[in-house]
Amino acid sequence: MEEVPQGCPGTGSAQAGRGASCQGCPNQRLCASGAGAAPDPAIEEIKEKMKTVKHKILVLSGKGGVGKSTFSAHLAHGLAEDENTQVALLDIDICGPSIPKIMGLEGEQFVEDNLGVMSVGFLLSSPDDAVIWRGPKKNGMIKQFLRDVDWGEVDYLIVDTPPGTSDEHLSAVQYLSAARLDGAVIITTPQEVSLQDVRKEINFCHKVKVPIIGVVENMSVFVCPKCKKESQIFPPTTGGAEVMCQDLKIPLLGKVPLDPHIGKSCDKGQSFLMDAPASAAALAYRRIIQRIQEFCGHHQPKEEHLVGS
Amino acid sequence: MLRAQGRAVHQCDSGWVPVFVDQEQSISLMSVGFLLESPDEAVVWRGPKKNALIKQFVSDVAWGQLDYLVVDTPPGTSDEHMAAVEALRPYGPLGALVVTTPQAVSVGDVRRELTFCRKTGLQVVGVVENMSGFVCPHCTECTNVFSQGGGAELARLAGVPFLGSVPLDPELTRSLEEGRDFIRDFPQSPAFPALSSIAQKVLSEAPARLS
Fold it and tell me: What is a biological process (GO) this protein takes part in (chain B) (predicted)?
């Protein structure tokens, strides 16, 4: 992928190829000819590839550190517990690819026979390697992941994203636009500073026409292991996700308590659902996963082509 | 968080006027948040547009005489980080405070942040470990909610100073949400000595490290 110049007006803009900052850009002639504004052929190619993928779920958050990758990983684990369900987890957090570590993978791509993972983390030779890429290069990688990975027959493709509403999110939505995304799950913590960013995330989904499956409130309540009393480490100063979801008429999929064992399982690359199946947090996860499955089940794609003909 | 939401940014002859957040006018602030019509508005920009704004924040804001310019960044090692380093480098000295939480998954990402600093010639002032333990208000048992030890270990491996650990304090969160002056309101909080000590270290050690 070529680097674009500072002040690039955007390939789809009326100024494409004509602006002052276009001088010297290797793509200047292409943009000036109007070809840059044509839809990316990769979108159709990805649509073809995605024909064997039944459900596609984006996991988003406004803020970092709310437990999005942890949730994506456990959504994948939970769905894959049924050995007849084929699950794929795609990590498009190019700068902070945590999924390989959370899934306990050091290069192999399959956690179980029915659970495969793809991440830029697998392409880095050292845990210290930094991916210092600007937007266009990250977009190129995401395109490659979606178009060039042989996903095969997949029931659920979960796409874990970095926090925010930028290149990665726009690219994921753009490249999957023809392939029909089931929807987005948005992760938050209870406090207003986090919710404020979630509202932006919800607006993003509306802008780019991605359905919202619902919101998950993470780190909801902490139960002291010694005295068993509850504390709210991240106080819901404005009513938490519950009030926000009521106001915006969006489903609250569930609340997950803050359990120190979740972090420990992730650090060991193990499924928390297996490590502590009877814990309140594991039960909360399972209820949320079930609701996501129900949402996807009600929004089945029409059977346009019968597989196996 | 600094109780400045909804304030307007004005122009003067030397550029945009930053927003003062305290009576003494010792802390001024600039953020894209001031330029949005509503706090719920999503900023759905690709890299080049973000880079342009960051450059403007450095060169077109009338900062005046400053002892410290603190730049809060999003997670990652991408457009915003490169733009900030490029825009600020001519104005040196420039250093980085790197924040992690204790668990290995977080440290795993922050190692890459330290590589970013090395590759871009950013001097690391030190590592701060945030959310380091929670003291139950009912029974005072301290639980390591996000594991422990990652920050100090990371600093040791990378050969940079470890500035300290800040424990979780729900009152800190509440105070930030409500825009209160945490330092004035909660001298008894477990987070206060930690934050003060880190600030002291930055004040005393940063000038030497960055010269």
Answer: iron-sulfur cluster assembly
